[in-house]
UniProtKB/TrEMBL annotation, chain A:
Keyword RNA-binding in record: no
GO terms assigned for molecular function: carbohydrate binding
PANTHER family: D-ALLOSE-BINDING PERIPLASMIC PROTEIN-RELATED (PTHR46847)
Signal peptide: 1-25
Domain Periplasmic binding protein positions: 33-265
SUPFAM superfamilies (UniProt xref): Periplasmic binding protein-like I
CDD domains: PBP1_ABC_sugar_binding-like
Name assigned to this protein: Monosaccharide ABC transporter substrate-binding protein, CUT2 family
TrEMBL record, chain B:
InterPro entries (UniProt xref): ABC_transp_permease
PANTHER family: ABC TRANSPORTER PERMEASE PROTEIN YPHD-RELATED-RELATED, RIBOSE IMPORT PERMEASE PROTEIN RBSC
Coiled coil, from the record: none
Main location: membrane
Subcellular location: Cell membrane
Source organism: Paracoccus chinensis
Molecular function as annotated in GO: transmembrane transporter activity
Record keywords: Cell membrane, Membrane, Transmembrane, Transmembrane helix
Presence of the UniProt keyword Transmembrane helix in the record: yes
Name the UniProt record assigns to this protein: Ribose transport system permease protein
Amino acid sequence: MERRNLLKLPLAAAALTLAGGVALAQEAEKKVIGVSIPSATHGFMGGLNWHAQDTIARLGKVYPNIEFVLSTAGDAAKQVSDIEDMLATRNIDGLVVLPFESEPLTDPVKQVKAAGKFVTVVDRGLSEEGIEDLYVAGDNTAFGRVAGEYFRDNLPAGAKIVVLRGIPTTLDNERVEAFQAALQGSDKEILDMQHGNWNRDDAFKVMQDYLAKYPEIDAVWAADDDMAVGVLEAIAQAGREDQMVVVGGAGMKDIVKRIMDKDPQLPVNVTYPPALISSAIEMTALRFMSNAPMAGRYIIGSQLITPENAEQFYYPDSPF
Amino acid sequence: MKRIDLHLLGPLVALVGLFILGALLNPAFLAPANLSNVLARSAFIGLIAVGMTFVITQGGLDLSVGSMAAFLAGITIMAMNALAPFTGENWGTILIGMGVAMAGGVLAGFVNGALITRARIEAFIVTLGTMGIFRSLVTWLADGGTLSLDSGLRTLYRPVYFSGIGWITWPIIVFAIVAILGEWTMRHTRFGRHVEAIGSNDRVARYSAVDVERVRLMTYVLLGALVGLATILYVPRLGSASGSTGVLWELEAIAAVIIGGTALKGGRGRVWGTVVGVLILSLIDNILNLADLVSPYLNGAIQGVIIVLAVVLQREKRSAE
């Protein structure tokens, strides 16, 4: 009970300030935006966490009237509790959520919407359509297709490709299906597809086994730069660096740097920017701070990073 | 006597069976390069599992080892990166890094052991707690990303994982030495006998003037030191550590110990069995990757079936004794 009262103190102070500046009341009204994302369990999510914190710090200065509440969750159940807490105790006006899993988060986010709040869903869609006001996501189909098309157009005829898949999820399926579709009917062959779980160590093991199993491999689709790091190490161990190219994904800074430096082993990369959380937070903030319409679906395309354009995808300060 | 022999040989028979299966499915399986890969990969879990054998045999448990390895890898990398400008990119710096890993491991094991034996908190609870603490610490140190070793040091350090005597690389050699020393310690030293005595009945052990708490504490310190040693071999492989390093290593190590014939309730430890258990787990993984037997979605299920089966077979034989 005591805590409740304490929480009310700043609100009371804010109310007094509001009463003071009557003319500015509309602008000075404090808005609270909740941001709920999965915790930094792997490289990509680490980058996403960094961009979220970075954006919140920056926007906090630009819009003093917006207060951000950031929470990170290690599993879906914790994320549901976080969102319930935001609604019950922090009185949020808007919610930016990257669902840990679609199914379990659908109902809690629906409750937020039902309470009349503005909802932005990031990257992983909810399992029911029409709940969110704004949907911001990367393009998983394009992510797979761009890599597939690169292989189709640039590898020699009869080239043999091995694939490392991520954690078994719909997202991974979309990417892989698009990749296969892009290679459909071409003269390139996919030898094998195993799960490296977006993890360096797992990818290292899977690639070691590929190298033991197949005497001829011309290209590796590592589908993620964390996996690409493990793959490169396994290839170096086998001394087969000059036999195959590796295409990762998501644009990790070390990999982008090597593409900039024209490393023959890493010709290209495909973007799936962790900074998409920044787009989502910025647009949600704009919803409250401007008249610009912010609704609908905003899909960030997956682009091919080549040595020519790599510089614009290089963020040396990001941890990813 | 004959029955006991059969019972002892159970895991070994399974290992030989897997070898034959692997060789039949893909000739590349028996290539030295592949066997070297599998053995070297087994070394991390193997070293940890040898330590875990002592902890489980005295009736304890340690869930924190995977997170501990990630944390130790993190501080080792940070220490070497921080020192490199002063001490230079040489073996001295790497030796200091190795020292950090070992000292950190011993200290972490001591903290676990002290909380369990001095503060008398359940081992499961203590190590569940430290598991979360180590995991969070490494994520925090890495700022949610990945800690990477400076490339100069990495080039120098890399051979510790990848080279050795011919295709018998250093991790394999270290694993073999630790396994032999572990087996010898369990069988032929007072410490080993005390560990087994405490695990089968700690009261009787206490009445027999065994310093129960001290021996228990020592098993956790030993395990911590072996996690440190595993870290020393792990860091040169990819030169990085992150929040996803060493995930579920604790359960793999525990599974290997149990497959090897050590009783989960304590009292009977078998280090060589643990080694066999570790190799079985690594071989399953390797064979599934080499053979396309089932959908990769089912790899975990196959491992699960084999773990349960291995333990079930031992149970039946034990009741027959």
